[in-house]
Amino acid sequence: MDSAPLLPLAATPEAWDTLLGDDAALRPGVLAIARRHRIAVDEARGAQRYDSGSLPVYALSEGTVLKLYPPEDAAHAEVEAQVLAFVDDRLPVATPRVIATGAQDGWRYLLMTRLRGRRLVEAWTDLDGRGRERVAEQTGAALGALHALDGTALRAIEPDWDDFVAAQRASAVERQRARRLAPQWLECIEPFLDAWMPEAPPRRALLHTEVMREHLMVDVAPAGGGVALTGLFDFEPAMTGHPDYEFASVGLFVTCGDARLLRRLMLAYGRRAADLDDDALPCRLMAHALLHRYSNLRWYLERLPVPGATTLEDLAR
Question: Which residue of 68, 111, 154, 200 sits 20 to 30 Å from the alpha carbon of 58, by its own alpha carbon?
Answer without folding.
Answer: 154
